[in-house]
């Protein structure tokens, strides 16, 4: 299977702890995106990379959030000092091609207790 | 800014019924339009897309036509099956440097045997 993969699939953490998620895109895709989805809502954009460059960050991405994509391959999303409001599904997608259709991974479900 | 509005749900239909799910958008220029589907317990999957006015996207019996004059991209299927039960999301992307997806809230479709 050469689709987008994410790790871990589920994460339970206590408020105030730091968490890190990993995304491995489809190998030939140069763009990588992070989204957040809460129950009953559509995904909301957080940030995206073209190769290793982070080109856009949403206002949703507070200072506690940081994302990296070293060498333009996998990406990590770190949340520092987690809050209960951070509980959500974190989705990663990758794309390539003229019209930039995006292919999504299974997501990481974060629960902050 | 960009926005996508989907009709309120949920929608419950009997097998073999005709399906229409409404989607309208607000955006500058000519965005690309997408429908994504999320089956129970699975990640988001691209269902179909259209990249310019009057284009018709189609896949698995579903169709949607890009209507610039009404800024709409309604999803239709002539005869739904139980296996079509899922959450459906309409989304748009401006492409280029602004390639992030903007999603609607999604609508849950349940198909009864």
Report on the architecture of this protein.
Chain A has strands at residues 5-7, 10-13, 19-24, 31-37, 44-50, 53-57, 65-68, 75-79, 88-95, 102-104, 108-112. Chain A has 113 residues and is an all-beta fold. In chain A, strands 2, 4, 5, 6, 9, 10 and 11 form a seven-stranded mixed β-sheet that branches. Chain A has a four-stranded antiparallel β-sheet with strand order 1-3-8-7, with no helix packed on it. In chain A, a hairpin with a 6-residue loop joins strand 7 and strand 8 (75-79). Chain B is mainly β and 113 residues long. In chain B, 0% of the residues lie in helices and 50% in strands. Chain B contains no helices and twelve strands. Chain B has strands at 3-6, 11-14, 19-21, 23-26, 32-38, 44-50, 56-59, 62-65, 75-77, 86-93, 102-103, 107-112. In chain B, strand 10 and strand 11 form a beta hairpin. Chain B is globular. The chains are: A mainly beta (113), B mainly beta (113). The interface between A and B is medium-sized, with 24 and 25 residues.
Entry summary:
Chain A is mainly β and 113 residues long. Helix content of chain A is 0%, strand content 50%.
């Amino acid at each position: 299977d050469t689709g987008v993969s994410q790790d871990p699939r589920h994460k339970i953490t206590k408020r105030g702890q730091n968490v890190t998620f990993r995304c491995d895109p489809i190998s030939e895709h140069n763009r990588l995106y992070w989204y957040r989805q809460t129950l009953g809502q559509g995904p909301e954009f957080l940030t995206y990379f073209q190769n290793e460059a982070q080109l856009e960050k949403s206002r949703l991405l507070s200072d506690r959030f940081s994302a990296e994509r070293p060498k333009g391959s996998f990406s990590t999303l770190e949340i520092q000092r987690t809050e209960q409001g951070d509980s959500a599904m974190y989705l990663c997608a990758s794309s390539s091609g003229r019209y930039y259709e995006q292919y999504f991974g299974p997501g990481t479900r974060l629960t902050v207790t | 800014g960009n926005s996508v509005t989907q009709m309120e749900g949920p929608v419950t239909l009997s097998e073999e019924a005709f399906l229409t799910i409404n989607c309208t958008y607000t955006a500058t220029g000519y965005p690309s339009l997408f429908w994504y589907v999320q089956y129970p317990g699975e990640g988001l999957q691209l269902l179909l897309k259209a990249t310019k006015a009057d284009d018709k996207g189609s896949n698995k019996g579903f169709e949607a036509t890009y209507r610039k004059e009404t800024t709409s991209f309604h999803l239709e299927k002539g005869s739904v099956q139980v296996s079509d039960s899922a959450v459906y999301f309409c989304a748009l992307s401006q492409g280029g440097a602004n390639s992030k997806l903007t999603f609607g809230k999604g609508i849950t479709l349940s198909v009864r045997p």
